[in-house]
Amino acid sequence: MTGAVPEAREAWLITGIPGAGKSTVARMLAGRFPRGAHIEGDRLAGMVVGGAVYPGQEPPEESERQSVLAMRHLCLLARSFARAGFVPVLDYVSMTRGGIAFYRRSLRRLALHVVVLNPGKEAALARDRDRPEKTVAAHWTHLEEVMLRELPGIGLWVDSRNQPPEETVAFILSHRDRARV
User: Fold this and answer.
1) Regarding beta strands 111-117 and 156-158, do their DSSP bridges make them parallel or antiparallel, or are they unpaired?
2) How far apart are CA 16 and CA 27, in angstroms?
3) Tens digits of per-residue pLDDT, 135-163?
4) pTM higher than 0.90
5) Which domains does the chain have, with CATH numbers?
6) Which residues, 6 or more positions from 58, have their beta carbon under 8 angstroms from its beta carbon?
7) Burial 108-139 (b: 16+ CB within 10 A, else e)
8) Do 157 and 89 meet the contact criterion of CB atoms below 8 Å apart?
């Protein structure tokens, strides 16, 4: 067995409305670290099969409970990957100050960087049309208003509507200090 790998000291959260490019950017960002792990919130939320209640569905209490469950598991996995020496890069729709505070508490031993992808509703809808395997943006464009109201001044905001994901990742890394919360 070889020597121990030092623990990662940072974590990243990529957020934005559905269709903003969270998963693409998060996966690419994780790939830019010598040891990086992409943890996709939608995949964790999708593990609930029987009794699944998605955001905005009834009953609202169960919808909220399942969203928090996904966030809790994102953080559990992030801490596990960080202990193993991998920089965790999470992606999930986290549109409230309370949600960001939850990540800060849950990941308090890691330097948390938050990136808010904000390409606008029209760009998100166009991207959604180009990915037939996951067309959900039309149901959630109203979250842009929530994001604009709740998250100003938190993390690094990126208007990625006219740049390819590689440029978005390069911009994020060159402004990493502004992403720290």
Assistant:
1) parallel
2) 15
3) 555 567 778 889 999 999 999 999 999 99
4) yes
5) 10-179 (3.40.50.300)
6) none
7) eebebbbbbbbbebebbbebbeeeeeeeebee
8) no
